[in-house]
Design goal:
The protein contains six helices and 15 strands. With about 240 residues, it is an alpha+beta fold. The protein has three domains: about 55 residues, Structural Genomics Hypothetical 15.5 Kd Protein In mrcA-pckA Intergenic Region, Chain A (Roll), CATH 3.10.290; about 90 residues, Pseudouridine synthase I, catalytic domain, N-terminal subdomain (Alpha-Beta Plaits, 2-Layer Sandwich); about 80 residues, Alpha-L RNA-binding motif (Alpha-Beta Plaits, 2-Layer Sandwich), CATH 3.30.70. It is elongated. It comes from Roseburia faecis.
């Protein structure tokens, strides 16, 4: 059982404030009876709940693709900086969280969800979910860099990085695909070959791609995208790669 106002907010009808207003206006019915109290307990699997005579579909978990802009931090809340969750309705900010992190100055694909199990799988080192970044650096990328990254490089940690795929697009531009998520990993990898990253954008994670999604906007994952992502997360577990 769940409170009616929480059910409606979680289903995208609006914020808690919005749905309480709609309940007062008599626009919500539960099993053909007009709902009068926001704290009414409902069973999403048994009760028929309508908003303006249209069924409200409850989703236990939701998944959003967000195009993170530079200048905000990847966190639920922060006293000093705007966060990625500030771009979402207030009703989502307590239960939803970003999957992994992007630096404050980094842009690109970020998955936002309330599915803790999938989050764990996508972030676990055991699963090696690939992430691809578009990178610009301050000088010509050495010709040997792709070979070095393919073998793994020393970035100051106890272990060298796992093999990574580098596609050089121009003297100072490249796409880098890694299967780890170490602290400032992309920047440190390029620093190991004498280059400073001046612009960084994540363009894919696993089977998800940023595509043409505009900066600072988000959308729900399609059923196909979600199925592919879950399948990859389940199949990526590796032993000793």
């Amino acid at each position: 059982m769940i409170r009616l106002d929480k059910f409606l907010a979680d289903s995208g009808v609006g914020t808690r404030t919005d749905v309480k207003k709609r309940i007062r206006e008599g626009r919500i019915t539960v099993n053909d009876a007009v709902a009068k109290k926001p704290d009414l307990k409902v069973d999403p699997e048994q009760d028929q709940i309508l908003f303006d005579h249209r069924p409200v579909i409850y989703e236990k978990y939701s998944y959003y693709l967000f195009h993170k802009p530079a200048g905000c931090v990847t966190a639920r809340c922060d006293r000093l900086n705007r966060t990625v969750m500030d771009f979402f309705p207030e009703s989502m900010r307590k239960e939803f969280a970003p999957v992994g992190r992007l630096d404050k100055d980094t842009e690109g694909l970020l998955l936002i969800t309330n599915d803790g199990e999938l989050t764990h799988r996508l972030l676990s080192p055991a699963y090696h979910v690939k992430k691809t970044y578009f990178v610009q650096v301050d000088q010509k990328i050495p010709d040997t860099t792709a070979g070095q990254f393919a073998e793994g490089v020393d970035i100051g940690d106890e272990k060298r990085t796992l093999p990574a795929d580098l596609k050089i697009l121009g003297d100072r531009e490249a796409e880098l695909t890694i299967s780890e998520g170490r602290f400032h990993q992309v920047k440190r990898m390029f620093a190991s070959v004498g280059c400073k990253v001046t612009y960084l954008k994540r363009i894919s994670m696993g089977t998800l791609t940023l595509g043409t999604l505009e900066k600072a906007t988000y959308r729900k994952l399609t059923e196909q995208e979600l199925a592919s992502l879950k399948k990859e997360a389940e199949n990526k577990q590796s032993s000793g790669v």
